[in-house]
Write a structure and sequence with these properties.
single chain; 422 residues; alpha/beta; D-Maltodextrin-Binding Protein, domain 2; 2 domains; ten-stranded mixed β-sheet; 20 helices; 10 strands
């Protein structure tokens, strides 16, 4: 009996040892993000990765969006940052790379083959060294209440002037035309001003003219962009300065406002709220007589590898997997409104995501105006554009004054603004 017990004890020790070894062989990675709304959806994607690579598990650990940049920097400086983390496009992530926090990814399998140079550029150096995998693009447009449009006999406007006429008819009928509000100031910058700006500054080509110093930031095109904000100001909700992002969404979802300038990233939220009316989206229309129309299609997020990670090889497996058709399909299906940036062909299953993506057809595409080149100094272009748009809405600045403030602020540090063609 003692011999049998001894043998059983040895067998149990062997099993426990084998189990511990199996546990030790699984590498645990963490992923940082500013998308607190996507925990369940990202888990589906990460589970699919772990099914393909059982020895690697990734924990998704997002941070509240307004706190993300500061929190990530604190983690990086303190040595507690995630192995993988979302990267803002252009200057914000470039600074992290230049400070040594990001691993260069020039040798990453699939990166050069499955992403165009234009897609890699927001997460690469000027000479093309990549430090992030292009991850998510988002589109901008105007959500609208289809049932209310039909009730009022309104058609989707095809010109900016037509949009203002439609807004007036909606207001005359007793509804709020645009649900947007400035209680959360960033929304005026990103989903109002930078949503409509490409149609007034001339899209990618026009934006590049500012970056090259061929235009000053207070020229007629910049003034026209601020004037467009002034055009819609009378059609915002009463007391809009006190309404938050969520408040403005609810104003639209409750049927009290006919339109809402927004982004494709809100598709899952709008669908989950199940409003009692049909809704869809249309593109911000160009001014009358302008042949080319534009859509803000923003390269929003990349994925970076912490240069201090102790599991770089395992993290690179995930980054390489991000370049595959499987990943692109999972992203499109689980996060509708977040569009894969790779060259892999993906068939979108979500109706509203397909509608948003169809806005690109026949239109020029460009990123948000402030992102490339204008975030690297103080005062930065984003803050100047935001403050100018807010001041125009409040009536404390004219469109010309807002454009002048943009030009004067950027000229304090941005060389093309200092030497631009007057």
């Amino acid at each position: 009996m003692k011999v049998k017990f001894a043998l059983l004890f040895v067998v149990m020790l062997a099993l426990l040892s084998t189990s511990a070894l199996a546990q030790d062989s699984v590498v645990q990675l963490t992923m940082g993000s500013w998308r607190v709304d996507d925990v369940a959806q990202m888990q589906v994607i990460l589970d699919a990765f772990s099914a393909a690579y059982p020895n690697v598990k990734i924990t998704f650990d997002p941070t509240n969006p307004p706190d993300y940049n500061a929190t990530l920097r604190t983690q990086l400086e303190g040595g507690t940052a995630p192995d993988l983390f979302y990267l803002r496009s252009y200057a914000t992530s470039r600074q992290l790379y230049e400070e040594g926090f990001l691993e260069p990814l020039g040798d990453l399998t699939g990166l050069m083959e499955n992403f165009t140079p234009e897609a890699r550029a927001p997460w690469a150096t000027d000479d093309g060294v990549p430090y992030g995998v292009p991850f998510i693009a988002v589109s901008h447009g105007i959500y609208y209440n289809v049932d209310l449009f039909n009730e009022l006999g309104l058609e989707i406007p095809t010109t900016w002037e037509g949009l203002i006429e439609v807004a007036q008819k909606i207001k005359d009928a007793g509804y709020t035309a645009f649900a947007n509000a400035s209680g959360d100031e960033w929304t005026i910058a990103e989903i109002v001003f930078m949503n409509l700006a490409p149609n007034f500054i001339g899209g990618f080509e026009g934006r590049q003219a500012y970056l090259k110093g061929e235009r000053c930031f207070n020229d007629e095109h910049a003034v026209a962009a601020f004037q467009a904000v002034a055009d819609i100001a009378p059609f915002l909700p009463e007391g809009q300065e006190a309404l938050t992002y969520y408040d403005s969404q609810q104003l639209f979802l409750l049927g009290e406002a006919a339109m809402w300038m927004g982004g494709s990233w809100d598709i899952p939220f709008f669908e989950s709220e199940e409003p009692e009316f049909a809704w869809s989206v249309f593109a911000v229309p160009a001014p009358e007589g302008q042949e080319q129309a534009y859509v803000t299609f923003h390269l929003d997020a990349g994925m970076g590898l912490n240069a201090a990670s102790t599991h770089k090889e395992e993290a690179k497996l995930f980054l390489e997997w991000m370049a595959t058709p499987e990943f692109a399909t999972l992203l499109a299906d689980n996060l509708p409104g977040f569009f894969p940036i790779s060259t892999n062909t993906v068939s979108l299953q979500n109706e509203h995501a397909n509608t948003f993506l169809s806005l690109n057809e026949g239109r020029g595409l460009d990123v948000r105006w402030a992102w490339e080149g204008l975030l690297a100094g103080q005062p930065d272009g984003y803050t100047l554009m935001q403050n100018g748009a807010l001041a125009v809405i409040a009536g404390t600045q004219t469109p010309q004054e807002a454009a002048d403030a943009l030009q004067d602020g950027l000229a304090q540090w941005f060389e093309p603004a200092q030497n631009c063609a007057k």
